[in-house]
Amino acid sequence: MSTIFGRIIEGTLPCEKVYENERILAFKDIYPKAPVHLLIVPKKEIRCLQEIEPEDGPVLAEMLLVAKELAAKFSIADGYRLITNNGKKGGQVVEHLHFHLVGGKTFCSDTGFD
Ligand code: 5GP
Asked: Which residue in 20, 71, 75, 113 is deepest, having the highest Cβ count within 10 Å?
């Protein structure tokens, strides 16, 4: 796998793992933008949301269920954001699809992190 997240999935880079099964890995963001900032990543190397295929539907749905479980586990179920950045213009830096689960603070009603 070619990205930092690929190396984390392969186990050659460490992470603070919060969830794992055969298809999905979730871990703490190294530069958290909120008190809770987790990354939910499919183990399949999908570059970004714009490159998903119909066959990826089940893992994408499972990522949403993992987000729900982690929100409860990290006590943010009453309010959080689930975000994916798509492409450089969308603010994506790591080219391996991931959802940011951010919470533990009150967000404004806009579309950014802050
Ligand atoms: P993007 O901008 O691609 O949507 O988000 C990438 C995220 O990955 C950023 O929030 C960044 O802090 C996080 N990140 C980058 N490198 C690492 C790393 O080596 N470990 C962890 N845990 N997070 C990382």
From this structure: 71
Q: Which two tokens stand for residue 9?
A: 């999935």
pTM recorded for the entire structure: 0.96
| Each residue's pLDDT tens digit, 17-56 | 999 999 999 999 999 999 999 999 999 999 999 999 999 9
- Mutation test of ligand 1: which of 4, 19, 100 has the most ligand atoms closer than 8 Å to its C-beta? 4
Q: How far is the CA of 28 from the centre of ligand 1 (A)?
A: 9
Task: Cite the beta strand spans of the chain per DSSP E.
Answer: 17-20, 24-28, 36-42, 80-83, 99-103
Name residues whose C-beta falls within 8 Å of residue 108's C-beta, 6 or more positions apart in sequence: 114
- State the sign of the Cα–Cα–Cα–Cα dihedral 52, 55, 56, 60: positive
